[in-house]
């Protein structure tokens, strides 16, 4: 069977998978639902800096009073039919596994098994990964490595934060994600991939980190559910002791390693400190109108880094 036939068969299978997952618009608001995150996301943020969520209008939990004699306001409102979940495409992960691109109305989701890796609706913390890092550097005209293309939110924030004279390397392991960025998700990327500062490499970000010492002013990683090999077991080497030492060596003096996570992990903070970093953990809401789901960003500075005051 040719690859086109293979993809048609897999797409048909994933339609059934999407139905089994009961993916609706609520799922599009979720992110990273692994068992590890299910346990840790319920914890109140007890360490690190919290950035309060902003919301316009009613909070999601607001309940309107019932109308006299007519039951609750919710019951009186006509229900709008939710658009169906569509399986748009699938991608093979080098080394094994599949990603599938789903669409629900105007929203997109990249799924790995039953877990959402990225959604187009909520991307506050992905953008903050870039902006918080840039604020902690002495200059914004250096050399940046972005690990993981995703839906382009971190890249867009890098380009908005760094100077026109900067350079940005994006390392993406899955070729078809690049195809999505140029096709189904092109409206999210805009012209970012054609920005002259951007160099896109189809490569494992660990290999890019290990290529040369003192190369980057900032390394931004959003390739897993947290500091463990979620997408592929090989990613564990990004977060182990010697992997963190490689990142340390790849950074220039006063450089920053920034890592996105769906959960807090004190043991990982200890590993960062053991590798020689000064570590700050910042917690942000999973979405702009969400106060009970929090994501973590570790900002690990190489000794001597000038750390700006956190906002």
Outline of this structure?
This protein is of the alpha/beta class and 311 residues long.
Describe this structure in words.
The chain is an alpha/beta fold. It contains twelve helices and twelve strands. It has helices spanning 3-21, 25-28, 35-40, 73-76, 124-135, 153-161, 175-182, 186-189, 205-210, 236-239, 241-250, 266-274, and strands at residues 49-50, 85-92, 98-104, 107-112, 115-119, 143-147, 167-172, 198-202, 216-221, 251-261, 278-285, 294-301. An eight-stranded mixed β-sheet has the order 1-11-12-10-9-6-7-8. A four-stranded antiparallel β-sheet has the order 2-3-4-5, with helices on both faces. It is globular and about 55 Å long.
């Amino acid at each position: 069977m040719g690859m086109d036939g293979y993809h048609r068969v897999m797409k048909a299978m994933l339609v059934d998978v999407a139905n089994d997952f009961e993916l609706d618009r609520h799922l599009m608001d979720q992110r990273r639902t692994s068992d590890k995150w299910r346990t840790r996301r319920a914890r109140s943020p007890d360490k690190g800096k919290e950035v309060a969520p902003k919301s316009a209008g009613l909070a999601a939990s607001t309940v309107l009073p019932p109308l006299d004699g007519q039951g609750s306001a919710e019951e009186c409102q006509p229900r709008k039919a939710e658009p169906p979940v569509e399986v748009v495409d699938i991608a093979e992960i080098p080394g094994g596994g599949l990603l599938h691109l789903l669409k629900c109305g105007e929203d997109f989701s990249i799924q790995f098994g039953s877990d959402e890796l990225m959604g187009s609706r909520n991307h506050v913390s992905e953008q903050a990964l870039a902006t918080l890092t840039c604020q902690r550097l002495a200059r914004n005209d250096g050399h940046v490595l972005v690990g993981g293309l995703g839906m382009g939110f971190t890249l867009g924030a890098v380009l908005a934060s760094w100077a026109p004279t900067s350079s940005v390397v994006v390392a993406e392991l899955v070729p078809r994600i690049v195809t999505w960025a140029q096709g189904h998700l092109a409206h999210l990327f805009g012209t970012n991939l054609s920005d002259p500062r951007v160099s896109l490499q189809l490569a494992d970000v660990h290999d890019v980190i290990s290529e040369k010492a003192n190369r980057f002013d900032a390394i931004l990683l959003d390739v897993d559910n947290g500091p463990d090999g979620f997408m592929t077991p090989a990613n564990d080497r990004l977060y182990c002791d010697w992997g963190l030492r490689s990142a340390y060596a790849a950074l220039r003096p006063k450089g920053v390693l920034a890592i996105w996570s769906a959960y807090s992990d004190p043991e990982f903070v200890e590993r960062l400190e053991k590798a020689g970093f000064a570590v700050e953990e910042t917690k942000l809401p999973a979405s702009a109108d969400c106060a009970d789901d929090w994501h973590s960003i570790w900002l690990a500075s190489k000794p001597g880094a000038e750390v700006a005051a956190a906002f």
